Recover the amino acids of this structure.
């Protein structure tokens, strides 16, 4: 990659977005206030499962300031549909998954604590909330089910009548017969049974929305903290409200973090959009954190049994995985695909395991819906693979690095037995780099020194892979996706040569305004300062699928590249006219259109000017203007991969685990802005370490009450819970997109949990510890030591 | 019954009549339109609402506006020099990429400046401990710590 | 938050008079507990009597072998006080470990002990040092002050003015923070008076701070970390929740007692 201009590809210009964020000038949804705005408050179910016998809103409607109160009955009467699921999973018998209705406001029954029962709209937020307390709901409390591991057992209450055993689907992937056969002859079988802990995303900006209806235009504008405004609009208009898509504009302004939780179409923004016309006033809704805990889609929550068959030399022969995945009370937008398509396809990891079979049971429970959370399926898969590998190495007495090297995929492209084709990679390189940076050679000395202080040190490995750059639409469609997964980009060259880029991806921390500007500046040879990036507005951007699955640069960036190609192609024609040369003789280099082999040239800016002031212009052959749009649908996924090594120190007296050294060597392909990439890794690592050591959504399995419903009980990683990280990158460029990029947003969260857990087990192995559940809180570590000693 | 409130915000005198249940953060955001101070939780734990009250970092979501009677309040909007030049801590956050989505950032910067006021040359451990009243979900804290170190080092 | 009336008296007399005549009125100190509870609609006082304007309630004063700390003194001021640091460093350390920077800048000693949260830090210091709570009506020994879960001997309308801490020969506080809330999962405050009397107060374990007779006995005989750590605490005296079982809490009491003694001897 060339560095033709300052702040081009490969440089780390400081971010364009920072000035506004650092001075308090950011524009998040809750910062916006509209003339005549009212406030919404949602009354939520206090019960995990209950029949609603009656709702009396009379007293509430008469309360001061109340503008409107709506319940499920009002929505039903207005023929408002249910919230849709975007991915159809077909079960082992070829049957479609069970899709229970998901009304935006409960109709007859509530299915989880936090389920929306009614909305109160009032002049002030205090008034809305005061009035909501006057709504009388007559509930008949029913038995609830919350534990994914036991919810399918006979006799358990059913969340939905259409799924009496709480099974949404049983889905299989891989060659079961080949796997079973490989297991019978195996020299060694390693077995693992564990729970992948349930997490709550906790973007620091709570969800928020403001809906407005214009009587003059008969149209709606929705500001919403969301990661993909076009998808939000499509789902809301076409599937729920039955509104013409062109009559709704969705704007996702500055968004304070998403991590998946702001991908989905939620009830609240849908209801206030509908209600905005009813009350003919703008309606603002801002989630309180206590509500976020019980209404933002949760992540993970698997119960898994996994087995790895090996030959006597530690070569992997086959893998068999059975997972029960909690889907929560309803199918969230991508809830069905996360534990299936985004999970089982990754079970090969970095290894040439010849046969793999996975069976996933999607389970309904009376809990908040579960959907994509940073990594989405891939952290779960990586945990299965890397814990199996680490445990097998320990059982067979093979060095942790050595067992991995023996099984690495070494030639590319490589078709896995679970349906993906890895285009490129170099797993030995990242592992070698990580081992060096982590000073694995010095570990025994550090362990001995710690021991003198009464502390136990351990080291853990994780070699992860992820499939990013979602996704080839035809592949996704064949797997049940109900949407395309391409991306769009528009490059608008202004008459004076500055550029505005419109992208369908969305930044909520990733720094698109900087990274995309670097790409455009480099390709057009213009100053970085002259490029602005616009995202998050269906009114300004042609179309977009948004940001998730580390797809922004690989897919969204490529769409922009394609648009740039069109700009350059047209620019060449204009330049040919200006330079009186033939089109085919024009080359574009460093921001100048040149006649090849001569010193005749015109600058990009001159060409732009000519395009908009076409006095000397081939108007007979060419339209004026320089504004190009492109759509890009990827031909494959991208496959970021890497090696993480974690070193921990455990205090056996209290069970406290400290991460004392963390190394990540990642291969993200080419890197546009190393500073931003490192930042993405850091953030992912803190979330992965959070999953491994701190975070857990806890439900009372009897009552379905959420016990970890606030920051007093749900442990968010704080600055002193994590170390400084050592991050490194190795590069094998992606082979199928022009930037050679793979994506980096989720790697940290995907790679780290097994590294941390394996490190703890390594520290405690002499005490007889072989398993460690997540999160490895001090209490759990202490308990595990006690039972190992007993 | 509304009550009279007078105090100073970012150097300017403010007089208002407020409903006593108005939180300081609500007053700043809704009445003064200083929306740089954010709300990330309802239990006084995330620190997104951190401001300076008489020079000390406090959580503006966990006190009444009336409790600021007679006080001097500084918000993120008041941190930069009147010329518009960023405060050295703001500049260090930018230089070190100590922010991503930017939502925790104003509170984080206000806490970090208070931390350095109390301890101008903190160790990494002291910085991490000293920021325990602020959550960041994006950065993993790595570059926030670096920013505070950079600011303390005057680099 | 529900609506309420707000008052800001200028002295203690006015404050107690107001509280005396307002039925559901409550004193407001730092508000770190009270405002938080009102926001979640868990508390609904008709009136708030803000103590913030009463200067005489704040301050730290050394008085012979007693340290007197005003009820409205902020945690941060106790933590940073040279007087406290010199005479009872364990108390300064305790105050410096409460909550976070922002909470410490606002929260007060009086508010903390009046609230008597079973996982709060100050109650351990007050009980572990055998301090005296001076109110608008009387003086109460720590042993009489803390009466149960969120309960104290304070009568309606009675205000804490200050707390008098006798300066011990040595003292130590060890806190094992709840990973989520950072309140004390277990906190143990140990002190040895000039005359040799040992007091051990435990917070976080049960339904309110308590003294441990076993630990006091062991440490009276032998004031060493090993002696403290060797005492086995019965899990029956401890609570269990999603963060810790009674057994783990009981175990941590021994461990933290040992660490508190080590700190006292350091
Ligand atoms: C995020 C967070 C973390 C925290 N972490 C900890 C921690 O780790 N350890 C810990 O111990 N505490 C912790 N706290 C609580 C904190 O220490 C509070 O400051 C303290 O509990 C209450 O003090 P306050 O001045 O804010 O009292 P307020 O909230 O104003 O009042 C509390 C109660 O005391 C009464 N009261 C106040 N002053 C008096 C008085 N002078 N006389 C009689 N009654 C009075 C009030 O009427 C009220 O009922 C934390 C709080 C928060 C928000
Ligand atoms: S908003 Fe979370 S602490 Fe104030
Ligand atoms: S930058 Fe997003 S929460 Fe800190």
């Amino acid at each position: 990659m060339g560095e033709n201009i300052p702040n081009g590809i490969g440089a780390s210009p400081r971010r364009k977005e920072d000035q506004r964020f650092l001075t308090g000038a950011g524009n998040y949804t809750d910062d916006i206030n509209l003339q005549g705005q009212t406030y919404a408050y949602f009354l939520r179910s206090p019960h995990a499962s209950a029949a609603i016998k009656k709702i009396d809103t009379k007293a509430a409607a008469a309360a001061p300031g109340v503008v409107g109160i709506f319940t499920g009955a009002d929505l039903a009467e207005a023929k408002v549909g249910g919230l849709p699921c975007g991915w159809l999973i077909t079960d082992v018998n070829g049957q479609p998954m069970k899709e229970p209705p998901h009304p935006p406001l409960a109709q007859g029954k509530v299915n989880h604590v936090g389920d929306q029962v009614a909305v109160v709209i009032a002049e002030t937020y205090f008034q809305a909330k005061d009035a909501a307390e006057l709504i009388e709901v007559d509930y008949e409390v029913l038995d609830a089910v919350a534990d994914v591991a036991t919810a399918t057992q006979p006799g358990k209450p059913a969340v939905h009548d259409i799924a009496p055993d709480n099974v949404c689907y049983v889905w299989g992937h891989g060659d079961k017969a080949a796997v079973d056969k490989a297991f019978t002859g195996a020299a060694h079988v390693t077995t693992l049974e564990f729970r992948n802990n349930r997490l709550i995303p906790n973007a620091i900006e709570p969800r928020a929305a403001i809906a407005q209806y214009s009587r003059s235009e008969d149209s709606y504008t929705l500001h919403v903290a969301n990661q993909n405004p076009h998808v939000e609009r499509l789902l809301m208009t076409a599937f729920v409200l039955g509104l013409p898509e062109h009559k709704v504009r969705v704007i996702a302004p500055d968004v304070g973090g998403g991590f998946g939780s702001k991908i989905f179409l939620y009830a609240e923004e849908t209801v206030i959009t509908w209600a905005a016309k009813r009350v003919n006033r703008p309606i603002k809704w801002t989630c309180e954190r206590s509500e976020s805990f019980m209404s933002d889609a949760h992540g993970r929550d698997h119960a898994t049994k996994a087995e790895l068959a090996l030959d006597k030399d530690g070569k992997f022969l086959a893998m068999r995985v059975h997972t029960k995945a909690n889907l929560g009370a309803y199918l969230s937008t991508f809830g069905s695909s996360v534990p299936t398509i985004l999970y089982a396809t990754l079970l090969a990891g970095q290894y040439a395991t010849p046969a793999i079979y996975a069976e996933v049971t999607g389970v309904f429970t009376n809990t908040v819906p579960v959907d994509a959370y940073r990594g989405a399926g891939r952290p779960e898969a990586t945990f299965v693979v890397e814990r199996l590998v680490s445990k097998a190495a320990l059982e067979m007495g093979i060095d942790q690095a050595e067992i991995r090297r023996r099984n690495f995929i070494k030639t590319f492209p490589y078709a896995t037995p679970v349906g993906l084709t890895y285009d490129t990679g170099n797993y030995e390189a990242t592992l070698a780099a990580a081992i060096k940076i982590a000073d694995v050679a010095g570990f025994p000395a550090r362990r001995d020194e710690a021991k003198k202080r009464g502390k136990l040190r351990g080291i853990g490995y994780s070699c992860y892979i992820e499939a990013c750059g979602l996704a080839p639409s035809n592949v996704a469609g064949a797997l049940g996706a109900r949407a395309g997964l391409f991306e769009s980009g528009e490059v608008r060259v202004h008459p004076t040569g500055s550029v505005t880029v419109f992208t369908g991806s969305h930044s909520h921390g990733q720094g698109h305004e900087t990274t995309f500007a670097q790409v455009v500046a480099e390709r057009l040879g213009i100053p970085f300062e002259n490029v602005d990036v616009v995202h998050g507005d269906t009114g300004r951007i042609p179309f977009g699928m948004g940001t998730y699955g580390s797809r922004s640069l690989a897919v969204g960036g490529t769409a922009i590249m394609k648009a740039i190609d069109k700009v350059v192609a047209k620019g060449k024609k204009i330049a040919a006219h200006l330079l009186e040369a033939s089109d085919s003789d024009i080359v574009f280099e460093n921001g100048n259109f040149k006649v090849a082999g001569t010193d005749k040239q015109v600058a990009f800016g001159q060409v732009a000017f000519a395009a908009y002031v076409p006095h000397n212009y081939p108007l007979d052959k060419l339209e004026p203007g320089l504004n190009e749009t492109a759509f890009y649908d990827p031909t494959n996924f991208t496959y970021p991969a890497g090696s993480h090594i974690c070193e921990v120190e455990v205090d056996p007296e209290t069970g406290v685990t400290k991460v004392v050294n963390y190394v990540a060597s990642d291969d993200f392909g080419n890197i546009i802005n190393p500073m931003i990439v490192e930042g993405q890794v850091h953030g992912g690592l803190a979330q992965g370490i959070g999953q491994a050591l701190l975070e857990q959504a806890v439900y009372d399995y009897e009552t379905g009450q959420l016990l970890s419903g606030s920051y007093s009980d749900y442990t968010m990683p704080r600055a002193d819970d994590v170390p400084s990280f050592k991050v490194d990158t190795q590069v094998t460029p992606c082979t199928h997109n022009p930037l050679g990029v793979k994506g980096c947003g989720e790697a940290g969260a995907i790679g780290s949990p097994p590294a941390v857990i394996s490190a703890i087990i390594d520290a405690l192995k002499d005490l007889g510890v072989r398993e460690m559940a997540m999160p490895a809180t001090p209490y759990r570590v202490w308990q595990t030591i006690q039972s190992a000693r007993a | 019954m509304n009550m009279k409130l007078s105090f100073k915000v970012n150097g300017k005198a403010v007089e208002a009549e407020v409903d006593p249940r108005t939180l300081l953060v609500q007053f700043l955001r809704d009445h003064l339109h200083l929306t740089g101070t954010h709300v990330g939780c309802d239990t006084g734990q995330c620190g997104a609402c951190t401001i300076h009250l008489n020079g000390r970092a406090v959580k503006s979501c966990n006190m009444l506006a009336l409790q600021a009677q007679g006080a001097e309040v500084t918000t993120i909007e008041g941190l930069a020099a009147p010329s518009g030049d960023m405060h050295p801590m703001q500049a260090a956050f930018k230089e070190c990429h100590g922010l991503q989505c930017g939502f925790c950032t104003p509170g984080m910067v206000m806490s970090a400046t208070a931390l350095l006021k109390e301890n101008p040359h903190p160790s990494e451990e002291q910085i991490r401990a000293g920021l325990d009243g602020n959550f960041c979900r994006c950065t993993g804290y790595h570059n926030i710590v670096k920013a505070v170190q950079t600011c303390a080092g005057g680099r | 938050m529900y609506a309420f009336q707000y008052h800001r008296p200028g002295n203690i007399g006015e404050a107690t008079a107001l509280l005396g005549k307002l039925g559901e009125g409550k004193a407001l100190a730092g508000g770190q507990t009270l405002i938080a509870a009102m926001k979640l609609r868990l508390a609904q006082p008709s009136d708030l009597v803000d103590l913030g304007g009463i200067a005489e309630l704040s301050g730290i004063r050394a008085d012979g072998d007693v340290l007197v700390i005003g009820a409205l003194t902020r945690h941060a001021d106790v933590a940073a006080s040279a007087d406290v640091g010199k005479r009872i460093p364990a108390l300064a350390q305790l105050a410096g470990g409460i909550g976070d920077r922002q909470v410490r800048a606002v929260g007060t000693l009086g508010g903390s002990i009046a609230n008597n949260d079973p996982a709060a830090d100050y109650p351990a210091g007050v009980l572990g040092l055998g301090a005296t709570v001076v109110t608008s009506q009387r003086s109460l020994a720590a042993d009489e002050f803390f009466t149960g879960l969120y309960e104290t001997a304070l009568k309606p309308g009675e205000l804490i003015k200050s707390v008098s801490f006798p300066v011990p020969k040595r003292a130590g506080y060890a806190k094992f923070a709840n990973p989520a809330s950072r309140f004390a999962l277990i906190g143990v405050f140990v002190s040895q008076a000039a005359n040799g009397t040992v007091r051990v107060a435990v917070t976080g374990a049960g339904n309110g701070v308590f003294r441990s007779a076993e630990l006091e006995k062991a440490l009276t005989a032998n004031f060493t970390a090993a002696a403290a750590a060797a005492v086995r605490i019965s899990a029956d005296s401890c609570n269990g929740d999603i963060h810790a079982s009674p057994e783990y809490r009981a175990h941590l009491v021994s461990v933290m007692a040992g660490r508190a003694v080590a700190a006292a001897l350091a």
About this structure: Residues B 39-41, 44-49, 59, 61-62 surround FE2/S2 (inorganic) cluster (ligand 2) (CB under 6 Å). Chain C is about 35% helix and 25% strand. Chain C has two domains: 5-51, 59-265. Residues 246-265 of chain C form the longest helix (20 residues).
